[in-house]
């Protein structure tokens, strides 16, 4: 397992900058625009990368807060003065490609196969998540095609650079933050238990095709007593945690990463307005209400007074 100290300054710079360059280059390649401002683009690129990094030790180093800050400063300096979107698109893609080559070569030279594999999957996961973001409400506020022609072309180029096949990344993308909350509360398993088994076909070969049956009514969402779970966890905790007013306390009770970086990534995943991202207090308030509402929407018995 490699760490930062195993690499030269130039190699570490490439390892640190490549993920954000991939996110920005993929977005720039899309037909729906890049971002409202460079700052917004940087913040969202970092959050998407954070969401797919997993718990790999080297990748956690790559996404340290100071590393992200330095990376953003270097990328800003690189694209300063670029006159138009077409030139920006070309510059981002060329820089991303060169940076990826250096980063992967540095990892490969260390003989750390597991690190190389994890890093390749990270870069591919970021590109696919950005390209498919319109399905989730738009990347940086833009809609458009689910995966545009430009994005697809850049992803194909990325696959060639990484030596991977199309579609290899999607299964590797980290489970979303909110899905982990549903898992911890038992909501996902409760919903899975209500899905009726498929009815096998009883048609006789050669017989006339029966009329299509009316679509089945959707299964009701099971109600899960999340309040008692959270209250029980709070009572057992050695800390004084109040999940009803604090997103940090709620995450701690569920044994989910409650760090600022994790909360920022979760807020991005849930669609926080960009203007709230720069104020941690406002972000926390928005995220707490958004998480409680989504838990309620998925069958959690959240009190109505907490949803107002």
Write structural notes for this entry.
- With 308 residues, this protein is mainly alpha-helical.
- The chain has two domains: 4-172, no CATH class; 177-195 and 221-306, no CATH class.
- It is 57% helix and 0% strand.
- It has 13 helices and no strands.
- α1 packs antiparallel against α5 (85-109), α2 (38-52) crosses α6 (113-131) and α12 crosses α13.
- The chain is elongated and about 55 Å long.
- Mean pLDDT is 76; it is low at 32-37, 134-146 and 166-174.
Care to give the gist of this entry?
Helix content is 57%, strand content 0%. The protein has 308 residues and is mostly helical.
H-E order? HHHHHHHHHHHHH
The count of strands amounts to 0
Measured distance between first and last alpha carbons? 48 Å
User: How many domains?
Assistant: 2
The rough form would be described as elongated
What do the pLDDT scores average to?
Answer: 76
Low-confidence stretches: 32-37, 134-146, 166-174
Helix and strand content put the structural class at: mainly alpha
- Put simply, the count of helices is 13
Measured by DSSP, the beta-strand proportion falls in: under 5%
Largest sheet: none
Radius of gyration: 22 Å
Percent helix range: 55-70%
Please outline the helices and strands.
Elements: H1 9-29, H2 38-52, H3 57-62, H4 65-79, H5 85-109, H6 113-131, H7 149-162, H8 177-184, H9 187-193, H10 226-236, H11 247-253, H12 260-269, H13 280-297
Short descriptors:
mainly alpha; 57% helix; 308 residues
């Amino acid at each position: 397992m490699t760490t930062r100290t195993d690499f030269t300054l130039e190699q570490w710079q490439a390892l640190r900058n490549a993920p954000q360059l991939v996110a920005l280059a993929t977005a720039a390649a899309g037909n729906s625009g890049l971002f409202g401002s460079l700052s917004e683009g940087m913040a969202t690129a970092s959050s998407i990368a954070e969401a797919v990094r997993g718990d790999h030790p080297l990748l956690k180093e790559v996404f340290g807060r100071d590393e992200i800050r330095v990376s953003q400063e270097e990328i800003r300096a690189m694209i300063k003065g670029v006159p138009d979107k077409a030139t920006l698109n070309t510059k981002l893609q060329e820089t991303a490609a060169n940076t990826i080559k250096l980063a992967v070569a540095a990892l490969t030279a260390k003989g750390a196969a597991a690190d190389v594999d994890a890093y390749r999957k990270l870069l591919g996961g970021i590109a696919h998540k950005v390209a498919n973001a319109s399905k989730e409400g738009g990347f940086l506020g833009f809609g458009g095609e689910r995966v545009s022609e430009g994005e697809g072309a850049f992803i194909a180029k990325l696959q060639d650079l990484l030596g991977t096949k199309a579609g290899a990344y999607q299964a590797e993308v980290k489970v979303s933050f909110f899905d982990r909350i549903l898992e911890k509360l038992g909501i996902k398993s409760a919903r899975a238990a209500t899905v009726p088994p498929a009815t096998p076909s009883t048609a006789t070969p050669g017989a006339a095709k029966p009329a299509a049956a009316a679509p089945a009514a959707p299964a009701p969402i099971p109600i899960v007593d999340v309040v008692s779970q959270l209250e029980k966890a709070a009572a057992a905790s050695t800390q004084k945690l109040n999940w009803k007013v604090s997103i940090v306390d709620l995450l701690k009770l569920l044994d989910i990463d409650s760090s600022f970086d994790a909360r920022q990534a979760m807020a991005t995943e849930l669609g926080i307005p960009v203007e709230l991202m720069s104020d941690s207090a406002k972000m926390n308030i928005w995220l707490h209400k958004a998480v409680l509402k989504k838990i309620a929407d998925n069958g959690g018995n959240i009190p109505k007074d907490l949803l107002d």
